Predict the 3D structure of the following.
Amino acid sequence: MTAVYRRVWDGPARAEAEVLNQACSGWAVLYSLSKRRFFGLCAWPSPQAVIVSDDTVEGLEQRMREAETLLILRMPFSESLGRAA
């Protein structure tokens, strides 16, 4: 029998994505091995899917915050108050 070693591709990037995923409720954060990019998928109700991406986890976090701001600005006032709390 031949031993097969498990290879972990882009381990540090995948770990960074997992840390951001745990820190940001309302988002699913993934790292794409094929594209070598970080992706954030918004889990809030919105009229259309909100997906942001960036080459770095820091850049992705900034894009996620920008998307949150835009979503809050587009909500009716009474609903946005409930989200901010």
Remarks:
- The mean pLDDT is 85.
- The CA atoms of residues 41 and 51 lie 5 Å apart.
- The chain has three helices and three strands.
